[in-house]
């Protein structure tokens, strides 16, 4: 077991409310937790490291994602992950600031999605899902060459598209359309993500 910093329990007690709020809003999403810890570390953390931090078996997590049933981290796993990440020289404000920033993103996303709910159906009927989807992003979030393939899921992954283009795959072409439900579930990811972070993969 990793050594726990002497200030860890004090910091955890002071940010208990923010941890609870973040977990409630993220529903234990590994992607959301990965983005949280990446910001705490000031660098992108690979999925393998997020699994290690949460003490989750990487192969089990991968299999769950591939089966279309993304695993969730419990609040206890999140608390323990934060506990072991605290260094003796850390200040509570570091953790409070990052947690509140991500909580605010969830709150803003909820407000935006609520306001857009009546318009998504019309958008889905009139706008093809392609790079034009970037028009929904605030200007500061638009990144040249941004990877939006996650919107369509694994059916439209680049390797499948290349195989069909070469004629090496006899299976039906991957479905490049996106349902209204998929649109509503994936748009929040665009709204919460940092510029460039959509390349992050589990």
From TrEMBL:
Annotated region (Disordered), positions in chain: 160-184
- Extent of Basic and acidic residues compositional bias: 160-174
Name of the featured protein: Uncharacterized protein
